[in-house]
Amino acid sequence: MDYLYEENALKAGYKNICGIDEAGRGPLAGPVYAAAVILPLGLEIDGLNDSKKISEKKREQLFDVICEKAVAYSIGIATEKEIDEINILNATFLAMHRAVEGLNVKPDYALIDGNQYPKIPMVMEETVVKGDAKSMSIAAASILAKVSRDRFMLQKAKEYPQYQFEKHKGYGTKLHYEMLTEFGPSPIHRLSFLKKFYGEK
Q1: What is the pTM of this model?
Q2: What would the pLDDT profile of 154-173 be if each residue is shown by its tens digit?
Q3: How many domains would you assign to the chain?
Q4: Contact status, residue 5 vs residue 128, Cβ threshold 8 Å
């Protein structure tokens, strides 16, 4: 994990390089989140890694450090209704666009986790497969997106306690499917993700 990708972009003449990652493409419920982060080049953040590889407690600690030390950061979402209307891939891109639009320092270069381009206007893009384990900026974005989404799902767990969102965050676990069988979908479920489960109702 280093700033190699960021340094290469700087050498190519770009000034403000942001990392972009998403959280929540797979769950059956809740929005998809994306974060965009511009870090001071060379900033060391102890323990920063792909958000899926570290504990919830550590992610919460890193969230505060990243927010405090980033040059700029922003979080964007696309709702479950938008996911149903335009599909999860386009909704993910929409969340990424919103995250970049929310930055108070405008990037001219974006490092995006994965292998697909969201096509952000006026920004040169580079995709990095498994970028959240390679680029500090993308790893920071992965933490902000994951923690923000988890916090949202914990709030919704209080609103809809019967689904036990605090245990699975909306992912398609055995428990979650059992709760869906018993209670049907909630207002925050992605109906397009449940067609196979319910048939085409």
Answers
A1: 0.93
A2: 999 999 999 999 999 999 99
A3: 1
A4: yes
